[in-house]
Amino acid sequence: MDFPVVSDSANQEKITLDLADVDFDVEQLALQKDWLIQVASDENKEISSLSYILCSDHYLHQINVDYLDHDTLTDIITFELGDPQDSNIEGEIYISIDRVLDNASQLSVEFTSELSRVLVHGLLHLIGYPDKTSEEKVIMRGKEDHYLALLDRMS
Question: What is the CATH number of the domain that holds 79?
Protein backbone atom coordinates (compact mmCIF):
# COMPACT_ATOMS: atom_id res chain seq x y z
CA MET A 1 0.00 0.00 0.00
CA ASP A 2 1.38 3.44 -0.94
CA PHE A 3 1.41 6.49 1.29
CA PRO A 4 -1.47 8.76 0.30
CA VAL A 5 -0.39 11.49 -2.12
CA VAL A 6 0.23 14.70 -0.24
CA SER A 7 1.54 17.24 -2.73
CA ASP A 8 4.05 16.08 -5.30
CA SER A 9 2.77 13.31 -7.57
CA ALA A 10 6.32 12.67 -8.86
CA ASN A 11 7.19 11.44 -5.36
CA GLN A 12 4.12 9.20 -5.10
CA GLU A 13 5.92 5.95 -5.81
CA LYS A 14 9.26 6.70 -4.12
CA ILE A 15 8.07 5.69 -0.68
CA THR A 16 5.76 2.76 -0.06
CA LEU A 17 4.24 1.33 3.06
CA ASP A 18 3.43 -2.33 3.35
CA LEU A 19 1.74 -4.18 6.15
CA ALA A 20 3.24 -7.60 6.84
CA ASP A 21 1.11 -9.12 9.58
CA VAL A 22 -0.46 -6.14 11.35
CA ASP A 23 -3.45 -3.89 10.84
CA PHE A 24 -2.55 -0.22 10.72
CA ASP A 25 -4.23 2.98 9.56
CA VAL A 26 -1.80 4.46 7.01
CA GLU A 27 -3.80 7.69 6.72
CA GLN A 28 -2.02 9.00 9.81
CA LEU A 29 1.28 8.81 7.90
CA ALA A 30 0.23 11.04 5.01
CA LEU A 31 2.47 13.96 6.01
CA GLN A 32 5.46 11.74 6.73
CA LYS A 33 6.05 11.06 3.04
CA ASP A 34 6.92 14.66 2.19
CA TRP A 35 8.82 14.97 5.46
CA LEU A 36 11.02 11.93 4.74
CA ILE A 37 11.76 13.23 1.23
CA GLN A 38 12.75 16.57 2.79
CA VAL A 39 15.01 14.81 5.32
CA ALA A 40 16.84 13.04 2.50
CA SER A 41 17.14 16.29 0.55
CA ASP A 42 18.52 18.14 3.58
CA GLU A 43 21.19 15.41 3.78
CA ASN A 44 22.01 15.80 0.05
CA LYS A 45 20.34 12.52 -0.83
CA GLU A 46 17.33 11.57 -2.93
CA ILE A 47 14.95 8.71 -2.27
CA SER A 48 14.75 6.49 -5.33
CA SER A 49 12.92 3.58 -3.72
CA LEU A 50 12.13 3.21 -0.04
CA SER A 51 9.78 0.60 1.40
CA TYR A 52 8.59 0.66 4.98
CA ILE A 53 7.18 -2.66 6.14
CA LEU A 54 5.17 -2.52 9.36
CA CYS A 55 5.02 -5.80 11.19
CA SER A 56 4.74 -7.58 14.54
CA ASP A 57 7.47 -8.47 17.01
CA HIS A 58 7.29 -12.08 15.85
CA TYR A 59 7.77 -11.15 12.19
CA LEU A 60 10.71 -8.82 12.85
CA HIS A 61 12.31 -11.23 15.31
CA GLN A 62 12.32 -13.91 12.61
CA ILE A 63 14.05 -11.51 10.19
CA ASN A 64 16.56 -10.66 12.90
CA VAL A 65 17.34 -14.35 13.43
CA ASP A 66 17.32 -15.35 9.75
CA TYR A 67 19.29 -12.46 8.25
CA LEU A 68 21.32 -10.92 11.07
CA ASP A 69 21.80 -13.93 13.36
CA HIS A 70 20.48 -11.91 16.34
CA ASP A 71 18.03 -13.68 18.63
CA THR A 72 16.55 -10.50 20.11
CA LEU A 73 13.55 -8.25 19.69
CA THR A 74 14.13 -4.92 17.98
CA ASP A 75 12.00 -2.04 16.80
CA ILE A 76 13.64 -1.63 13.38
CA ILE A 77 15.81 -3.39 10.83
CA THR A 78 17.11 -1.48 7.82
CA PHE A 79 18.37 -3.09 4.61
CA GLU A 80 20.38 -1.02 2.13
CA LEU A 81 19.47 -2.18 -1.37
CA GLY A 82 21.52 0.30 -3.36
CA ASP A 83 25.07 1.61 -3.31
CA PRO A 84 25.67 3.29 0.07
CA GLN A 85 28.07 5.73 -1.63
CA ASP A 86 25.39 6.82 -4.12
CA SER A 87 23.29 9.91 -3.48
CA ASN A 88 20.17 7.88 -4.33
CA ILE A 89 18.61 5.94 -1.47
CA GLU A 90 17.19 2.48 -2.06
CA GLY A 91 16.18 0.37 0.88
CA GLU A 92 13.72 -1.57 2.98
CA ILE A 93 12.93 -0.66 6.55
CA TYR A 94 11.07 -3.13 8.77
CA ILE A 95 9.36 -1.69 11.84
CA SER A 96 7.72 -3.64 14.65
CA ILE A 97 4.53 -1.85 15.62
CA ASP A 98 4.58 -3.89 18.86
CA ARG A 99 7.99 -2.47 19.82
CA VAL A 100 7.00 1.08 18.87
CA LEU A 101 3.88 0.81 21.05
CA ASP A 102 5.91 -0.60 23.94
CA ASN A 103 8.69 2.00 23.57
CA ALA A 104 6.15 4.84 23.46
CA SER A 105 4.55 3.54 26.64
CA GLN A 106 7.88 3.13 28.44
CA LEU A 107 9.07 6.59 27.33
CA SER A 108 5.69 8.22 28.07
CA VAL A 109 5.43 9.66 24.56
CA GLU A 110 2.66 9.50 21.99
CA PHE A 111 2.71 6.48 19.69
CA THR A 112 2.80 8.71 16.58
CA SER A 113 5.84 10.58 17.93
CA GLU A 114 7.71 7.36 18.57
CA LEU A 115 6.72 5.98 15.17
CA SER A 116 7.99 9.16 13.49
CA ARG A 117 11.28 8.81 15.37
CA VAL A 118 11.66 5.22 14.18
CA LEU A 119 10.73 6.15 10.58
CA VAL A 120 13.43 8.81 10.43
CA HIS A 121 15.91 6.61 12.33
CA GLY A 122 15.77 4.02 9.57
CA LEU A 123 16.15 6.65 6.88
CA LEU A 124 19.14 8.15 8.70
CA HIS A 125 20.77 4.70 8.65
CA LEU A 126 20.31 4.56 4.87
CA ILE A 127 21.75 8.07 4.59
CA GLY A 128 24.86 6.80 6.35
CA TYR A 129 24.50 7.47 10.06
CA PRO A 130 25.50 4.50 12.23
CA ASP A 131 24.59 4.13 15.91
CA LYS A 132 26.87 1.43 17.28
CA THR A 133 29.06 3.57 19.56
CA SER A 134 28.01 6.02 22.27
CA GLU A 135 29.23 8.94 20.15
CA GLU A 136 27.31 7.69 17.09
CA LYS A 137 24.17 7.30 19.21
CA VAL A 138 24.44 10.92 20.36
CA ILE A 139 24.78 12.09 16.75
CA MET A 140 21.86 9.88 15.65
CA ARG A 141 19.61 11.17 18.45
CA GLY A 142 20.53 14.75 17.57
CA LYS A 143 19.59 14.15 13.92
CA GLU A 144 16.32 12.49 14.95
CA ASP A 145 15.42 15.43 17.19
CA HIS A 146 16.34 17.94 14.48
CA TYR A 147 14.15 16.24 11.89
CA LEU A 148 11.27 15.65 14.31
CA ALA A 149 11.27 19.43 14.89
CA LEU A 150 11.10 19.83 11.09
CA LEU A 151 8.07 17.51 11.01
CA ASP A 152 6.39 19.63 13.68
CA ARG A 153 6.97 22.75 11.55
CA MET A 154 5.59 20.99 8.46
CA SER A 155 2.43 19.81 10.27
Answer: 3.40.390.30
- Count of CB atoms within 10 A of residue 46's CB? 14
For residues 65 and 144, give the distance between their C-alpha atoms in angstroms, rounded to a whole number. 27
**Over pLDDT 70: what percentage of the chain?**
91
d(CA 22, CA 128): 29
- Rounded CA gap, 126 and 104, in Å? 23
Distance of CA 21 to the CA centre of its chain: 17
Give the percent of the chain with pLDDT over 90.
75
Specify if 56 maps to a domain.
yes
Asked, for residue 87, whether it belongs to a domain, the answer is yes
Report how many domains make up the chain. Answer: 1
- Classify residue 2: in a domain, yes or no: no
Which secondary structure element, helix H or strand E, spans residue 94, and what is its range? strand 88-96
- Domain assignment present for residue 4? The answer is no
Q: What are the DSSP calls for 104-134, one per residue?
A: HHHHT--HHHHHHHHHHHHHHHHHT---SSH
At 47 the three-state DSSP class reads strand
Per-residue pLDDT, averaged over 123-151, amounts to 97
Q: Which domain holds residue 108?
A: 9-154
